[in-house]
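> example.struct
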């Protein structure tokens, strides 16, 4: 599976999303931050169908509380997961991978609540703006490591390239990917290039003592 982790700037439209879709027509998934889609879900569905690529991100329903939702749109342009913030996890399947989501501070406020769905292979953690301190950056990466090891799954996250939390003077953009054994294979700090994540169970090290379902080869590459 080929996943593009993007760190776009905040914007009213979906220009950066469409640019990534155009640049990477062979991608299986485009993964973007919390709230990026704003009120443009219908347009995102059209783009997913046009380019045949699944989109994982977040959007806002401004007249509801909590307003933030995680969302997964399949390559046919259909919404296959939409979950309000601070509710239990949901899951979809893509190419044999069970995929679930976390939204921003769900990571530290409630962790990954998967009591209704069982095991997962990948958790995609869409974050709003950058971290407001180095301490928060380290804390969130460590929390993600604990979840990866506890649930024996890949955990990856991404924030917007800009914006700050409650007018903080510090905003550290973040993108990360953690293997099921807790190895941090990507931990990007204030580097907003997109990344390619290649996941392949078939090329996993067969000499590993881990159960077959927990072995996966993860390749990360910068773009541009």
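> example.seq
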């Amino acid at each position: 599976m080929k996943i593009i982790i993007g760190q776009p700037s905040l914007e009213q439209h979906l220009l950066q999303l469409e640019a990534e879709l155009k640049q990477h027509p062979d991608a299986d998934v485009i993964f973007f931050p919390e709230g990026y889609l704003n009120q443009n879900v219908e347009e995102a569905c059209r783009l997913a169908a046009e380019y045949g690529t699944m989109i994982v991100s977040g959007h806002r329903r401004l007249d509801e509380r909590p307003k933030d939702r995680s969302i997964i749109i399949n390559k046919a342009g259909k919404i296959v997961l939409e979950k309000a913030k601070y509710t239990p996890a949901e899951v979809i399947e893509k190419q044999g991978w069970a995929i679930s989501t976390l939204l921003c501070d769900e990571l530290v406020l409630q962790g990954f609540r998967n009591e209704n769905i069982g095991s997962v292979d990948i958790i995609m953690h869409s974050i709003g703006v950058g971290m407001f301190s180095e301490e928060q950056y380290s804390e969130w990466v460590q929390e993600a490591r604990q979840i990866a090891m506890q649930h024996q799954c890949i955990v990856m996250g991404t924030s917007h390239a800009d914006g700050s939390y409650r007018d903080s003077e510090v905003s550290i953009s973040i993108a990360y990917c953690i293997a099921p054994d807790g190895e941090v294979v990507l931990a990007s700090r204030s580097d907003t290039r997109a990344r390619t994540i290649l996941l392949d169970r078939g090329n996993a090290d067969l000499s590993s003592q881990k159960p077959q379902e927990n072995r996966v080869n993860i390749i990360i590459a910068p773009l541009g």
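> remarks
The longest helix spans residues 134-151.
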